[in-house]
Design goal:
Two copies of one chain form a homodimer. Chain A has 319 residues and is α+β, with helices and mostly antiparallel strands. Helices cover 34% and strands 28% of the residues of chain A. Chain A contains ten helices and 14 strands. The longest helix of chain A has 18 residues. Chain A is globular, with a radius of gyration of 19 Å. At the A-B interface, helix 1, strand 2, strand 3, strand 4 and helix 3 of A face helix 1, strand 2, strand 3, strand 4 and helix 3 of B.
């Protein structure tokens, strides 16, 4: 049996089974956007994400500043998805020896630009030789404590009766990826959504502050990420297609496919939150559906018909 | 200019210059074995290390259990080198889709075996598709506080008058690598030193407890690692070759080269400590030299003559 036979999520489930034996201080182990530990009266939140040349970016002719930004931003987004505040990063560079030093300088300019925006300092890392460029960042941050209890956005926090809400707009990143392939420049607004994601730290913290306790970032695709929440929470969900905040530029660029791209495209790095409707009222989010008892996820159009897409989202080993 | 022109340490220095702007809570930034932050009254220590197929291990026909052990152990050793206690790991697997799931199961058995020995729980990570297998672990742990001040083993902590001391024996790992290449089995004691390193957590913590404040793990090679300490501390060092605890098995296997391999071989994952002689007295270490004012590192034989080796140790981009 090969990794491609069980897919990314089959593999993750398998690894979770083999290693979930939490120590007393581990608050959140494998299977959420980030891991969380207690350190005295505080919470440490940590996550890691990797980008591989030829899979997640194209090194040849690349804008390394953009790659540096994105490497840090996707990790910051995982901290946002826990309702945490990022602080520091460890950066690992696996590089062919012939890599231009100027490319790495630019990579770090992008990393530091993103770090400056989100208050993250590069505190260390590792550099090794490799036949292919692989870039990894691990980001550490703080989680909220309320009344001496962890106050986090967990995938397992959804309850029947919750509304489902998202920040910002969806599908722009998938549109940008397609426009990039068609030769669009990096100042195209859709392309910019793809190469310079803006993680939702403030929104995640605001969610925690008003009592929301369930969240995930939209990295694999709306339906797939909501599916992760449903599975972890043991619930189902209904999403109303005509309430989804599809990117306006995407509607213009790809009118026939905009909804599907918003539902399955991924890499928008918006937050998906679930919680009581009254708690959502003060947050900058759009309500798109509700959590129900049972299991499974239904996407419903304006006439109440179910919409089905063949591809739900990203799987590292199958896409 | 390419990465191979400036080498691993030139690149690290360059990156340190570009990103060393510590936040208030960052106690140790880039350039030591691990990064350290304050979290309230506690210290969080974090490090990351990567292994690339074809560079740090050979995936084909590999014993994945051993690779899993080593992946975690080399990170645990960085925590030991700060005098800390490891707690949790994030593990990133970059895998070709055709990777056998059984190999990953075995990798995790080795990881968890090492984790069990050192009290480390795998708390999360990332899995991505890649044309080449790249394995990364980030390990988090706790650092010591004494009288509300960080009590760490720092590369910058060496002072003229300190003695230089090491735990265990040196060169065994380099000997094991050579024996592996010659077809030796994994139960050969030298091979075992290479594939199943035993980080010195207890020794590092004992060092901190008796007031030692300078340490590094011997990963690149004794002379090179001591060179890192000298550079970070702004001091020089003298090492007496005939006091170096060369591995007994290595002396038997490679009598003519044993000393050189002990000095430059690397991957022994012993600790090198410097501190006042009286503080070292209670520790399970061998004194091999002393720290002096000035700069540079001299290796002296029994007749007071300087020994010079062409190769000082490992450089990721030049070796």
């Amino acid at each position: 049996m090969r990794v491609s036979d069980i897919g990314e999520f089959g593999l993750i489930e398998r690894l979770m089974g083999s290693s979930r034996k939490g120590s007393g201080d581990l608050v959140v182990g494998p299977g959420d956007d980030a891991a969380v530990w207690r350190a005295g009266e505080e919470l440490v939140v940590a996550t890691t994400d990797t980008m591989v040349d030829g899979v997640h970016f194209r090194g040849e002719g690349a804008n390394w500043r953009d790659i540096g930004w994105k490497l840090l931003a996707v990790n910051v987004s995982d901290i946002a998805a826990m309702g945490g505040a990022p602080e520091s990063a460890l950066v690992t560079l696996c590089l062919p020896p012939e890599t231009e030093v100027a490319a790495i300088d630019e990579l770090y300019e992008g990393l530091n630009e993103c770090g400056h925006k989100y208050g993250v300092t590069v505190a260390g890392g590792d550099v090794v030789r490799s036949p292919v460029t692989v870039l990894t960042a691990a980001v550490l941050g703080r989680g909220e404590m309320r009344d001496r209890e962890p106050a986090l956005l967990l995938r397992s926090g959804a309850r029947p009766g919750d509304v489902v809400a998202v920040t910002g707009t969806l599908g722009g990143s998938a549109g940008g990826l397609r426009r990039l392939a068609a030769g669009a420049a990096s100042d195209d607004p859709l392309v910019r959504r793809h190469i310079r994601p803006l993680p939702r730290i403030m929104e995640g913290r605001a969610g925690v502050a008003v009592g929301v306790r369930c969240g995930i970032d939209v990295s694999d695709g709306l339906l797939q990420d909501l599916g992760h929440v449903c599975e972890a929470s043991g619930v189902g969900a209904i999403v109303h297609a005509d309430t989804i905040p599809v990117s306006g530029e995407l509607r213009v660029a790809y009118p026939d496919e905009a909804l599907e791209m918003a539902c399955t495209g991924g890499e928008d790095y918006e937050l998906l939150l679930t919680g009581q409707r009254k708690r959502m009222a003060g947050l900058p989010v759009t309500v798109i559906g509700e959590i129900v008892a049972g299991s499974g996820l239904q996407l419903i159009d304006g006439e109440g018909r179910e919409i089905q897409y063949e591809r739900k989202g990203w799987d590292a080993f199958r896409s």
